[in-house]
Amino acid sequence: MEHIEHQISKVKAGLEILSHTIDGSLTEVKAHMDSVGHILAEYTHDRKMESIGLMAGGVAHDFKNFIHIIAVNAGSIKDSTENARNVRRCRQITAVCRKASDLVEHMMNLTETGELPTKKVDLNVEVKKGVTLLQDALPERIRLETVFSEDMSSIAGDPTQICQVISNLVNNGREAIEGEGVISITTGEVILEACDCLKHGNARPGEFAVLTVSDSGPGIPPEILPKIYDPFVSGKKGNGNAGFGLAIVYTIVRRHNGWIDVESKEGMGARFSVYFPIAQGESE
Ligand SMILES: Nc1ncnc2c1ncn2[C@@H]1O[C@H](COP(=O)(O)OP(=O)(O)OP(=O)(O)O)[C@@H](O)[C@H]1O
Ligand SMILES: [Mg+2]
Fold first, then answer.
1. Which ligand is nearest to the CA of 229?
2. Quick one: 172 and 248 in the same domain?
3. Which of 71, 91, 154, 191 meets the CB 3.0–4.6 Å disulfide criterion with 279?
4. Is the pLDDT confidence value at 177 over 80?
5. Local confidence band at 102 (pLDDT 50, 70, 90 cut-offs)
6. 244 and 173 within one domain
7. What is the distance between the alpha carbons of residues 80 and 83, in angstroms, rounded to a whole number?
8. Which residue's CA is minimally distant from atom 30 of ligand 1?
């Protein structure tokens, strides 16, 4: 709610400046008009993700139970039959249940918990943990580079979810790079003023930790870029469960009261910058 109020005050401030600068710099007028557009776009997307999360959470729980019952029964029938054809059928049911179970897991990840994480987390420590896990899964042709900012302030976060953000972004870089390439992860801190927040609807002034994951791949296909955080949007062919990675990243980052900036140019790689608010004194 506080956040919505901030967005509304940003719109008001933008319109206020607009009314005063109408005779002044056209560039400034345009920047504020764009800013209003960004705020509305982000607001609409947040509401859409909230509805998706609500629906997904509602059906996913029941589905999980149904799938479990089907899988257990298929297993029992397989164990009690000698009929090779029925054994094959049961194996097919079990395989489909596993896929359905993955899908349900993704859907549950989109559920909004409504609670902001309060644990104090050192972003550098989480990135180092994530990198150790991810390094082994990368093929030799892809180099993983890290640049850590020293003396970072803590963020209020959930270590497991932050690790998931890093993993999903690095996996996308890995999948995008054909042949040799580099994925870079950097951490840093920024202090944003109101004038730095015009390009992103959820951006606001304050102190933030920034996690950046960039790659030397071909960049995000332009037809996908505008809807990149929607679930089921994927450039991958023939994988029914694809298109959740960035939707989950988006949900996690919004749960942390942060936002994501994406930059991508065809042939020049992609860069995701994730902003997390610095933890305030009351965090554990
Ligand atoms: N770093 C990147 N470079 C190029 N394209 C990207 C990059 N990150 C995301 N994309 C594009 O955005 C699409 C959506 O990404 P997202 O992670 O949400 O789903 P996915 O990778 O297709 O499937 P999943 O993550 O569920 O396995 C990708 O399929 C790809 O087309
Ligand atoms: Mg992905």
1. 1
2. yes
3. 154
4. yes
5. confident
6. yes
7. 9
8. 235
